[in-house]
Design brief:
47% of the residues lie in helices and 23% in strands. The protein is of the alpha/beta class. It has 2 domains: 181 residues, Rossmann fold (3-Layer(aba) Sandwich); 118 residues, Orthogonal Bundle (N-(1-d-carboxylethyl)-l-norvaline Dehydrogenase, domain 2), CATH 1.10.1040. Strands 5-2-1-6-7-8 form a 6-stranded parallel sheet, sandwiched between helices. Strands 3, 4, 9, 10 and 11 form a 5-stranded mixed sheet that branches. Helix 1 links the parallel strand 1 and strand 2. The chain is globular and about 55 Å long.
């Protein structure tokens, strides 16, 4: 029986990893990759394919199907979600007919509450946890640009059958995706959240790229304060973290392209809706809930909400 995998959200994450899957399984009789897209993105991919531009190469891929029509898409065995966090409920609601009780859903969002939110929408389904490290973005509809060589996908579950998880890992590996099936996935997701939340908040508030954060003493102090605050919130919630999580996160940032910035900062500069609620406000609210002070997060939230 053919395994049908849908990619919901063809931005920097969904477009890149979905593109690798589409390339690997275009002629497969066992696995079908479906891009769920609309508007200009759908038209462009149908006509020209999805183009992925890296530092050293370009490739164009065609999935078996590009559609936003649930009747045309049909039932999916697996759904990889990579929209913005503010679109979770709306985007999943638009393809509800494609999700059966056996559909496995893998969220690849910047926030940490996606699994819980999706489980509320689909209480019978297996909802995995996942996160990615990659610098990639939409250059124009149907064109994804990836910067740097660092790309990793982590996923796992404490409730899903291990056979299903290993099957998905095999699908990723065969598509040359550097993926890791992680036992303690909640800690891994939170490590990524600490990285991206502090970075998104700092770059957006200071209007600086990564180099502008790391190479300026005052800017770096703001960033480190954010790391300390979000780490305190995580520990108060009972999340297990390494003792040197702040230092490890700074090292990750130092290895990132200095001229790149967070997706929230890019959205802010472009006048688009941002993930402020999931990346900044969430930390403030959880801090209040667990009695942890987050003054720098609060200051940034108040400025960016204006």
């Amino acid at each position: 029986m053919k395994t049908r995998i849908g990619i919901l959200g063809l931005g920097g994450v969904g477009g890149y990893f979905g593109g690798l899957l589409a390339k690997a399984y275009f002629e497969s009789d066992a696995i079908e990759i479906v891009f769920i897209a609309r508007g200009e993105t759908q038209k462009t991919i149908v006509r020209n394919g999805l183009k992925i531009i890296d530092d050293t190469y370009e490739m164009i891929v065609f999935p078996r199907l590009v559609s936003n029509n649930p009747d045309e898409i049909g039932k999916l065995d697996c759904l990889i979600c990579a929209t913005k966090t503010y679109d979770i409920e709306t985007s999943l609601g638009s393809i509800k007919k494609c999700i059966s009780a056996t559909t496995i859903i893998l969220p690849l969002y910047n926030g940490v509450d996606a699994t819980e939110r999706i489980q509320t929408l689909f209480p019978e389904n297996t909802i995995l946890q996942g996160c990615v490290y990659i610098v990639s973005m939409i250059e124009s509809p149907g064109i994804i640009k990836k910067i740097g060589s660092y790309e990793k996908l982590f996923f796992g579950s404490t409730t899903a059958p291990i056979s299903k998880l290993k099957e998905l890992q095999s699908i990723f590996e065969n598509a040359n995706i550097e993926s890791f099936l992680v036992e303690n996935i909640e800690e891994t997701v939170w490590e990524k959240f600490i990285f991206i939340s502090a970075l998104a908040s700092a770059t957006s508030y200071l209007n600086q790229n990564i180099g502008g954060i790391l190479n300026n003493r005052e800017n770096k102090a703001v960033y480190i304060s954010l790391l300390n605050e979000i780490t305190a919130v995580a520990l108060a919630k009972g999340i297990t973290l390494s003792n040197n999580i702040v230092a490890q996160t700074i090292i990750k940032l130092e290895k990132s392209p200095q001229n790149s910035t967070s997706s929230m900062h890019r959205d802010l500069l472009a006048g688009h809706k941002t993930e402020l609620n999931s990346l900044t406000e969430y930390v403030v609210k959880e801090g209040l809930k667990f009695g942890v002070a987050t003054p720098v997060y609060q200051m940034i939230l108040e400025k960016l909400f204006r």
